[in-house]
Every structure is written in structure tokens, then in C-alpha cells.
Design goal:
50% helix, binds 2-acetamido-2-deoxy-beta-D-glucopyranose, 6-hairpin_glycosidase_sf, signal
Length: 401
């Protein structure tokens, strides 16, 4: 595989021999449909907070990310809702939210974040809070915001967030970062985000490229050996720390986002190092996820069968997987991935959309399942719709847009 570095940016590694048959791509939701879905997302946008109502703080980082990814594939239509000004407003105001976050893991493995009014009214200044995963989501969102706008302060802030995340690293389990500043859980998502932010910064900040590449490569070496990737190639939620100090896979759910963020992180790492061999693991995990975490029709379904009640966190996960699968698809094209992305995007549009063009939690529908669409379920499904557009464009295929 040839990795091509383009304008210092990531994820354009092209397998030139790859060809895709037209019928696979012809049904991707059209550019006009995606505009309608982006407008529906903005129905929840609260300009005075810079956040999306009906969902939580970390989810809002993902709302911003999907809008930025859409702006990268459709500059002209994204002007109609002025994505750069949404980014600017969110950048200014989302740091001021005066909440405190507490996360719990239920018996079923379901993760729940609760954001409560904070007594000190401190706010999440500079996008920092008690949880390293929340920080990582905002760092990735700001990196994508920079990709769209090239506005330096977004990339500077992503670097500042990363500096805080570095404080979460220690030798417990031989390395890696903790989930939170309480230092009681080493899990997959925080470490995948750490890897992805480091590798993404390596591809965008030339003055510190060596440092970021080293951190990303070390994090991946640790992660691969940590035991979190099970024998099926799927990533479980995290590690149990045994009384003797050894750390083992805790067998908790293989959430779709735990598979997804790893794919995007490894794509950025491959570009940063110029060594595509790390994509072998990404392909393995992606295939394992598509085999294990889909229904009979090939539609992505959250691990544990929690749908349609996956809580305020779990309702975000599937889109994160598909967004990252699209990054992998552009780096290492594979018809299985292309078909999966397009089929899921089609299902969302055809079966999981209400009359307001809002998407619900279950991609095979109906949109009202689980209490109906909110900014989390909608932005998550929008991710696969935008991903479909991105992979079709990358193929240069004709579509109905
Ligand atoms: C790429 O990485 C793999 C494993 O990480 C290593 O074995 C190989 O030597 C590397 N290739 C190059 C060209 O550096
Ligand atoms: C958003 O909707 C999903 C599915 O209906 C639900 O599980 C989740 O709790 C909702 N989010 C919030 C913050 O209510």
C-alpha cells in the first residue's frame, strides 16, 4: 500500500488499483438530502450555549465533528448553514458550560454520563473536565474544525487539551491513560482517543511532529499488548486491575465506538509514520465489528442489544464507528466497507427518518424507537450519511447528488 501525504494532512492513502462498481454507490443519500439532515440537526442547536440541546457535552463535540466532516465533503452546501460560524460560536461558548460530569457503568456495561450544575460555576474552561474521554472528543472536533477553516486557535486548543490528557498517563497496567482524573479505570475509549489525537496532531503540527508520532506509536504498542483487543479482534470496554497489579481484559461490552475510534487513530498513525502495516489491525477489527455488530441485513446494531434504550451515551456510538470506518475506507479501500457504509446510510434515510428529517437510534427504524430522535441519535446517524458521501466522493464514482 502506498501512503500519500497531501498538504500535510491525513487519510489520503490510495490504492490505485481499486475499482468500484457503480451500482454500489448509486444509492448514497444525495447532497440535498444531507443538507436537509444537517438543517434538522441545527434544530437542536442552542446558539447561546454553543451546544446541542437534548444531548450532553461530549455528544456536542460529536455534533460539531459531523458538521465539519460534512463541510469537508460539500463546501458549497455547508455554506447554507454556515458551518464555520457554528464552529466559531461553539468554540467560544461550549467552554463556559457550568456543569460537573459524573460517569457510571451499570451492571449491563452501559455507560452513563450525568452533567450536573456545578457548585463552583467554573465551567469546562479550555474544554477540560474530569474525564479524559470528554477532552479527547473535543480535541478531535477542534482538529476537524481546523481542517475546515485553517483557523489556528482551534489547533492550538487541541494541543492544549492534549497536554492535559498527557497528565493521565502512568505506569499502572504498564502505561496508557486513565479514564478520569479519579484514576480508577483504564479503558479503551480514553486510550483510543489519546492515540487518535496524538497521531492527528503529528500530521498537522510540523514543529512537534516527532514528539506526537512517538507518543502515538508508543500508545499503540501499549494498547496492542494491553489485552483489550480480544481473540475475535474486537475491543472490549477496558481493563480490570488485579490485586497483584496485573491488568486483564474485563470482558465488558464491545461497543461500536470502541472499534471505531481505533480505526481512525491507526489511519492517522499510518500516515504519520508512513508505515501502512498498522492498518492490518484496523482492517481486522473493522471486519470483526461488521460481522459481530450488525443484524441480518448488515445494519449496525449496538453491542449488548441495548437498542432502543442505550442511554444518553450509547445513542452516540454507532455513528462514531461509521465515521472512522470511512476514514479507513479512504486509506485502505475495501468493497466490504464500502457496501456496509452505503447500506447503513440507505437504511437510515429510508427507514429511520421522520417527517422532520430527524433520525432515531435504531438505524433499521422506526425513528420514534426508544423515545424518538434527539441530537445524539440524529448526529450519530448523520455520521453514516456523511460517511457515505465521503467514500463515494473518494471513489470518484457517479452518484445521484
Ligand atoms: C512497519 O511497521 C512494522 C510493524 O510495526 C515493522 O515490522 C516494519 O518493519 C515497518 N516497516 C517500515 C518500512 O518501517
Ligand atoms: C436520546 O435518545 C435516545 C434514544 O431514544 C435515548 O436512549 C437517550 O437517552 C436520549 N438522550 C437524552 C439525553 O435524553
Amino acid at each position: 500500500m502506498v501512503l500519500i501525504r497531501w498538504a500535510g494532512l491525513a487519510f489520503l492513502a490510495v490504492n490505485l488499483a481499486h475499482a468500484t462498481s457503480g451500482h454500489l454507490t448509486s444509492r448514497a443519500p444525495s447532497a440535498e438530502n444531507i443538507l436537509a439532515a444537517a438543517e434538522a440537526l441545527q434544530g437542536w442547536y442552542n446558539p447561546s450555549k454553543g451546544l446541542w440541546d437534548s444531548t450532553n457535552w461530549w455528544n456536542s463535540a460529536n455534533c460539531l465533528t459531523v458538521l465539519a466532516n460534512w463541510a469537508l465533503v460539500d463546501v458549497s452546501r455547508s455554506r447554507q448553514i454556515d458551518v464555520p460560524s457554528i464552529i466559531a460560536n461553539t468554540f467560544e461558548k461550549a467552554q463556559r458550560d457550568v456543569l460537573r460530569v459524573r460517569k457510571t457503568i451499570r451492571e449491563s456495561g452501559l455507560i452513563e454520563s450525568r452533567y450536573d450544575l456545578h457548585a463552583n460555576k467554573r465551567g469546562f474552561t479550555e474544554f477540560l473536565n474530569e474525564y479524559y474521554d470528554d477532552e479527547g472528543w473535543w480535541a478531535l472536533a477542534l482538529i476537524r474544525a481546523w481542517d475546515v477553516t485553517r483557523h489556528g486557535p482551534y489547533l492550538d486548543m487541541a494541543e492544549r487539551i492534549f497536554r492535559d490528557m498527557q497528565g493521565g498517563v502512568d505506569d499502572t497496567c504498564g502505561g496508557g491513560i486513565w479514564w478520569s482524573k479519579a484514576r480508577d479505570y483504564k479503558n479503551a475509549i480514553a486510550n483510543e482517543l489519546y492515540l487518535s489525537v496524538a497521531a492527528s496532531l503529528a500530521n498537522r503540527v510540523p514543529t512537534r511532529e516527532g514528539e506526537y508520532v512517538r507518543i502515538a506509536a508508543d500508545t499503540w504498542a501499549w494498547f496492542k499488548a494491553s489485552g483489550m483487543i480480544n481473540q475475535d479482534g474486537l475491543v472490549n470496554d477496558g481493563l480490570d486491575i488485579l490485586p497483584d497489579g496485573r491488568c486483564v481484559n474485563n470482558g465488558r461490552p464491545t461497543w461500536t465506538y470502541n472499534q471505531g475510534v481505533l480505526l481512525g487513530g491507526l489511519v492517522e498513525l499510518a500516515v504519520a509514520t508512513g508505515n501502512g502495516s498498522v492498518l492490518d489491525q484496523a482492517v481486522r477489527t473493522a471486519k470483526a465489528a461488521l460481522a459481530a455488530l450488525t443484524d441480518d441485513e448488515g445494519i449496525l446494531r449496538e453491542a449488548t442489544g441495548c437498542e432502543p434504550n442505550c442511554g444518553a451515551d450509547g445513542s452516540q456510538f454507532k455513528g462514531i464507528f461509521m465515521r472512522n470506518l470511512a476514514y479507513l475506507q479512504r486509506a485502505a479501500p475495501n468493497d466490504e466497507f464500502l457496501v456496509a457504509i452505503l447500506r447503513n446510510a440507505d437504511a437510515v434515510w429510508a427507514k429511520n427518518r421522520n417527517e422532520k428529517n430527524q433520525f432515531g437510534i435504531s438505524w433499521s427504524g422506526p425513528p420514534e424507537a426508544g423515545g424518538g430522535p434527539n441530537a445524539s441519535t440524529h448526529s450519530s446517524a448523520l455520521d453514516v450519511v456523511v460517511a457515505a458521501r465521503a467514500v463515494v466522493e473518494a471513489n470518484g464514482a457517479v452518484s445521484n447528488g
